[in-house]
Amino acid sequence: MKHFLLAPNLLLACAAAAQTTPENLVQYAHPLVGTARMGHTYPGATVPFGAVQLSPDTDTISYELNGKYNPEVYSYCAGYQYKDPTIVGFSHTHFNGTGHSDLGDFLVMPTTGPLQLNPGPADKPSSGYRSAYSHATEVAEPAYYKVRLADHDILAELTATTRVGVHQYTFPQADQSHIILDLMAGIYNYPDKNVWTFVRVENDSLVTGYRQTNGWGRTRTVYFALSFSRPFKTYGSRNYDKKEAYRGFWGRFDQAHNWPDLAGHQLRLHFDFGAMQAGDKVKLKLALSPVSTAGALANLRAEAPGWNFADYRQKGQAQWQQELSKITVSSPRRVDKENFYTAMYHAFIGTTIYQDVDGQYRGLDQNIHTAKGFTNYTSFSLWDTYRALHPLYNLVQPQRNADMAQSMLAHFDQSAEHMLPVWSHYANENWCMIGYHSVPVLCDAIVLGNAPFDQNHALDACVTTARQRWYDGLGEYMTRGYVPEDKSGASVSKTLEYAFDDYCIAQAAKKLGRPDIEKEFRQRATNWQNVYDARIGFMRPRLADGTFRAKFDVLTTSDPAYIEGNAWNYSLYVPHDPAALIAKMGGNKRFVPHLDSLFTIHLPDKFFAETEDITRDGIIGNYVHGNEPAHHAAYLYNWTNQPWKTQPRIRMILNKMYHQGPDGLGGNDDCGQLSAWYIFSALGFYPVAPASGEYALGSPAVHGATLQVGEGKQFVITVKNQSDKNVYVQSARLNGKLLARPFLPVSEVRQGGTLEFVMGSRPARK
Length: 766
What we know:
Layout (H helix, E strand, L loop, with lengths): L7 H10 L37 E3 L6 E2 L2 E2 L16 E2 L1 E3 L15 E6 L18 E2 L6 E3 L2 E6 L4 E7 L3 E7 L6 E6 L11 E10 L2 E8 L6 E9 L5 E6 L21 E4 L2 E6 L8 E9 L3 H11 L5 H16 L2 E4 L3 H14 L4 E2 L6 E3 L5 E3 L6 E2 L1 E2 H4 L3 H8 L1 H17 L8 E3 L2 E2 L8 H10 L7 H12 L7 H7 L10 H22 L2 H10 L7 E2 L4 E2 L27 H4 L7 H7 L3 H13 L18 E2 L2 E2 L21 H12 L15 H11 L1 E2 L7 E4 L6 E5 L5 E7 L7 E7 L2 E2 L4 E3 H5 L2 E8 L6
Parallel strand pairs: 35-39
Antiparallel strand pairs: 1-5, 2-3, 4-7, 6-12, 8-9, 9-10, 10-11, 11-19, 12-18, 13-14, 13-17, 14-15, 15-19, 16-18, 20-34, 21-24, 22-23, 25-26, 26-27, 28-29, 30-31, 32-33, 33-38, 34-35, 36-37, 36-39
Helix pairs in contact: 4-17, 6-7, 7-8, 8-9, 8-11, 9-11, 11-12
């Protein structure tokens, strides 16, 4: 794992921040961590769960190259690449840590000199409006970003409210100055991504409009309202549309200069402010809405009525202080706090609010709905986040998690397919990844009593989703008890993940007193056994005729029967019944050495050379931490006769996979899942099976912590004899009572109380 130092000015900022009180938690969260290739995070300005994620984009790589997928675009999932020497502009929507992408809406760029409406190539930035920059002038904090655009000598500063991006540009002396609004720019862009764009110049300081795109989100519409702190003198546009057979009678007007009513597929606008004196500022506020330009204007007026940039920055960072304070950790080492609060920062930016200030939002049916009794959220990367992120929310963000669950139910109610979300964003289901992992989120909330909604309706939605025979091999799974590889790809992964989701439904049905549903899905949850090949001890692709596929390699990560993993990792994926898995694999005598080997064998490069989201930096032995299917694996020792082996494994992963600096994450953060793993594991426990009602113990990396678990309750963790060598838990007491098993009841943690670890340098084998 490479370890990159922070930029010099960031180090100075950290040093200055170290003199403040320990309660200033914002100083420890570094948005630049994970901005190098594998992190796919963005370093810009956003508030917790904010609809606006205002951030620099460093290039305009096309998704398509010569009619085929361009693999280079993968590096730009978040729009920002730390290695790039130029910035194209600052757009208002981004994904955090995803392995696929969209968004990048409403790119803004300030410039001086002769007007340039094309960004130009990266190797010749002066030929376009993009600009070179230096990391030495870059400052990234929660709710604040600053950089000097070298080619224009403009100091750019960004902050945000929930729905408004706030910009402040300080100009040098210049004869000409402009603000570019690029409505063509986007992430995972291609020539036909823009379906339509509409703009109205309302007056000399207010612009409204919308843009509709396709792609990952097939029908995605975002509205905006843009307000300037000073009137522009002139304005104009360029329409880059292909020549069309019929364009009405608009051709009689000069729409390129000072024309207030614009529409097209490919538009760029410029707003001209004339001569500038050194130190002159142009501020602007751009509000988003999923509903209408009127909604965007209402959001703007409600959240950002004035022009005090410093005040918005302060309020944004106060919001971060409040959210980061959900968990306060103690450690004598600054690095521990930086890793922890950077992880919390990432965990709280992936899922975002998706409604106007009046509660209106665009639904999956493309109609306008009003969220009644809950806040509507979007960007559900559920294949990733059901594992640890939503359990984290259920612990320290219970109200938000309940709102997210109700957002998923609203999705179901609006779905023509009668499905809960699979991977949804911006009123779209994009069907990315496998399984139906809204189910663990809803069922976990039901099992833990954090479901302030119609729980039987939620269970019915889970059951309806799980019975959709047309969906992704599910009919074959229901008929045969497994997904045949010759009928549907990723068959082993699907079988195992369907079985876990089925277990969650059974748990919720038990809680709600629905024995018929519990029985059906308890039986379905055992289907994982149907892809286990006892002759070789691995989960193996099986064909429709009942035979196992002959061609098989347990190490390759490109086997189509597995998604983002190999047989070695996926063969451990039975999180709801590790005891049965261990028995199936020959008991402790065979299972423990097998689990040991996951972390110790060498995985040659050839086995992941063709996999774009796996690199050597994200691998420990054959354990791929950069992808999710084995995130629970190190905790499986707890079900064996050697539970202490979990503890050094967890510490090793924490140390190897999480660092400060741009390459500080060992894989894609995937909307906060990688970060949520860190938070739980650093605290000393982990939700191996959401909806089970238990956490598995690990090895705490902090010296202590206080968790705010809702309704004024606190859960306090103390760690005695903590050190880098003392990685083994000698004893653990929950509310003063010695734990006989390495597990915690989630319900007791959520009620508040105390957990005391005593650490040592040798395993406690009893």
